[in-house]
Specification:
Number of helices: 6
Radius of gyration: 33 Å
Helix content: under 10%
Largest sheet: 6 strands, mixed
Strand order of the largest sheet: 9-8-3-2-12-13
Shape: globular
Structural class: mainly beta
Strand content: 35-45%
Length: 703
């Protein structure tokens, strides 16, 4: 710390000799200042730039009671950064958690003399150190003037004490002129207002957009004559009427400046020849889209995205030396096969060296490609392990990316146990275990079949063990029904599965076919009536029974956070379309027959809740806890209850029944509760309504 102090002291001396450098371009600035009751104190710093800003060269300085900038300063943690448009939040460690969750802060600062332990008469400064230059970016307060209790801001006396100050949206830069800052740059709020902390909004500023279209390929292909033809752009910014573009330097690139625009504006457009929609570019494709950025907006496109084809040489190195007929294919012509050569012709350099070559004319764009061994089968053996190769033909005609691939030599002795759960496919009728089979095809089998998976115990989970891997290998694969690519999981060009080998016997992996699982359980009814007339109902919308062994109900009481978890009886399950009913043991038998419940619980239990107690349905999958459905918020305490469907305190002394149109849980309680009857997922019924408990759904309520 002493070394750092000496460095800063020398920088301060140099700055006094040479004069401080003041910020002239957008950089970080203070966006919020909170000086509340007790230790409820915080600072927020905003990044107005379009770049991620790393904080290693930034410091916060401070002055106490008008004593001038002291040697005490704040360095940010190593590796800290602020994303574009994001903020850095620092709070006092003793700030009330009811006002601001500690987890939402970037720094929680301890100590009685920390950078966020200030009173209304203590100044703060934000500086940036670059080599021997120290640039003052922003200051809050006057470092050499003690105002007494605090400084006035706008028309508010002592606004820097027991107030929250938020920088006005139109302020885009910091300032070292505190008098100008306090006069008109801050909005002042009451004491302990923390609702704005954690995000900052700035007003959009007017910018221009230079739009360019390269017509050179259209000229060389005879589609455009610069002597007689014109090119315009029609878009959302000109009512799709079209504005003619110009080529003043006659380089074949036509330009137009569009203004005024605001940062964040989305522009849709297309280029046209001779202002005709019949000759417009991208005639069967979506409009072009550009989102206006801060700073310079200058973008060049090729007309119709066509730079003209470029001759590209592709090679595949057959290191195992086992291939007899390699062919290449790619997205540039919808995966059409092209012959590769290892005979010294057609661009191949050396005959018989197992390096196969193809020279193809490739249009401009980003393209994926791969290669197969043509073994006479329908699809051939896919030779690429891992992701497809990607090659780019840029707008200037340059070629970059991957134009060669080496087939690896098989090695390794690690084992992967592949498991695929077919139960949902069985329930849907798309897989018949008596007549159908499921196999694996992957990079390890050159995308041919690695063999059929086996369900030895009849539980619907099919398994296969494959050896020959090395720890760190990345394998790609898919499961298929009946060895048919048309029935493979993730159809219509969906992604391959990818797995990195761990080794040491740890590679046992299980998937649902196509990642399709039965619909999950959710709360279908919630009852919080008078006395102990309380209960829950959980609905199974799936076509198969669901075991409750891996499910829990999380509980929060009075805003205290998730603290208790209800476990269901061992072996409990819910049949398709059925419900699980839990009630308190002292529920009125005149309202509900206890024998109709699945669980009747004595106090204390998950059903002994009030209107301000949250509940969540969760599932334990391995080491992961997955939240499926929630009622209420775990923190903070709402008081009596939460509003639902626009009805105040609807979780107290009410019955909530899930609408019949809802088919899944919702972990967003605000969305689930809704703001009125139309937007809510729930129908709110009077207290002690138990008529609907025991079955679901109830379309008569929704209608």
């Amino acid at each position: 710390m002493k070394v750092l102090f000496n460095k800063l002291f020398m920088l301060l001396v140099l700055a006094l000799i040479a004069g401080w450098t003041h910020a002239q371009t957008p950089d970080l600035f203070f966006s919020e200042y909170i000086e509340g009751n007790s230790n409820n104190k915080a600072l927020e710093i905003y990044n107005p730039t379009s770049d991620t800003v790393f904080l290693e060269n930034y410091r916060i300085t401070m002055a106490t009671n008008g004593g001038g900038w002291s040697s005490t300063y704040r360095m940010f943690p190593n590796g800290s950064f602020i994303l574009p448009g994001d903020v850095w939040v620092m709070i006092n460690s003793a700030t009330s958690s009811a006002l601001f969750p500690v987890a939402d802060a970037d720094e929680v600062v301890t100590g009685t003399s920390s950078i966020v332990t200030f009173n209304g008469d203590d100044a703060r400064g934000l500086v940036k150190i670059s080599a021997t230059d120290t640039t003052w970016l922003d200051i809050f307060g006057n470092p050499t003037l003690d105002p007494g209790s605090g400084w006035n801001v706008g028309a508010i006396t002592n606004a820097t004490v027991n107030h929250t100050l938020v920088r006005k949206p139109e302020i885009l830069y910091g300032t070292t002129n505190w008098e100008a800052s306090f006069a008109n740059q801050w909005d002042v709020y009451d004491v302990d207002v923390f609702g704005y902390l954690g995000a900052h909004t700035v007003a959009s500023s007017s910018v221009s957009f230079t739009l360019n279209v390269n017509m050179n390929y259209q000229i060389t292909s005879g589609n455009f004559n610069p002597l007689v033809d014109s090119v315009d752009v029609a878009g959302s910014f000109n009512g799709w009427a079209g504005t003619t573009m110009s080529d003043l330097d006659m380089d074949g690139i036509y330009s137009l400046v569009i203004s005024p625009l605001n940062v964040g504006d989305s522009l849709e457009f297309k280029f046209r020849i001779n202002a005709s929609w019949s000759t417009c570019e991208l005639s069967t494709n979506p409009n072009r889209l550009y989102v206006v950025q801060s700073g310079i907006n200058n973008q060049t496109f090729w007309y119709d995205n066509n730079t003209g084809p470029q001759m590209v040489t592709f090679t595949v190195n057959d290191q195992p030396a086992t291939s007899l007929n390699i062919k290449i294919k790619g997205t540039w012509d919808n995966w059409t096969l092209h012959q590769m050569y290892d005979d010294g012709t057609n661009g191949d350099l050396v005959s018989g060296d197992h390096i196969w070559t193809a020279q193809l004319s490739i249009p401009g764009g980003n393209w994926e490609w791969g290669a197969i061994e043509d073994d006479g089968s329908q699809w051939g053996l896919w030779l690429i392990q891992g992701s497809n190769m990607v090659v780019t033909v840029a707008i200037d005609g340059t070629v970059s990316g991957q134009t060669s691939y080496s087939i690896p030599v098989p090695s390794g002795s690690e084992v992967i146990v592949f498991n695929v759960n077919m139960n949902y496919q069985i329930s849907l009728g798309t897989f018949n275990p008596l007549t159908d089979s499921v196999d694996i095809a992957g990079s390890f089998s050159f995308w041919g079949s690695a063999g059929n998976c086996i369900d030895s115990d009849g539980d619907g989970i099919y398994s296969m063990t494959i050896t020959g891997f090395t720890a760190g290998d990345v394998v790609e694969f898919k499961f298929r029904i009946n060895e048919d690519w048309n029935l493979a999981e993730f159809p219509n060009g969906g992604p391959n599965r990818s797995y990195t080998v761990v080794g040491g016997g740890a590679d046992i992996i299980t998937y649902w076919y196509s990642d399709e699982q039965p619909p999950s359980l959710f709360f279908s009814e919630y009852i919080e009536g008078s006395s102990n007339n309380k209960g829950f109902e959980i609905y199974n919308p799936a076509q198969v029974s669901i075991s409750l062994d891996d499910y829990r109900i999380a509980q929060s009481s009075n805003g205290g956070g998730w603290a208790f978890y209800h476990t269901f009886p061992v072996g409990a399950s819910i049949a398709p379309g059925d419900v699980w009913v839990i009630v308190a043991d002292q529920i009125s038998t005149a309202l509900f027959n206890l024998s109709d419940a699945d669980e009747v619980l004595a106090y204390p239990s998950v059903t002994h809740h009030n209107g301000d107690d949250a509940r969540a349905l969760i599932q334990i999958v391995g080491l992961d806890t997955i939240f499926i459905d929630v009622i209420g918020f775990p923190t903070p305490d709402p008081g009596t209850g939460w509003p639902v469907a626009g009805i105040a305190n609807a979780t107290a002394d009410k019955t909530l029944v899930r609408k019949s149109t809802i088919t899944t849980g919702n972990t967003d309680w605000l969305a689930s509760a809704g703001t009125d009857a139309a937007t809510s997922e729930w129908v709110v019924l009077p207290s002690n309504t138990l008529t609907y408990l025991g079955s679901h759904p109830h379309p008569e309520l929704t209608s």
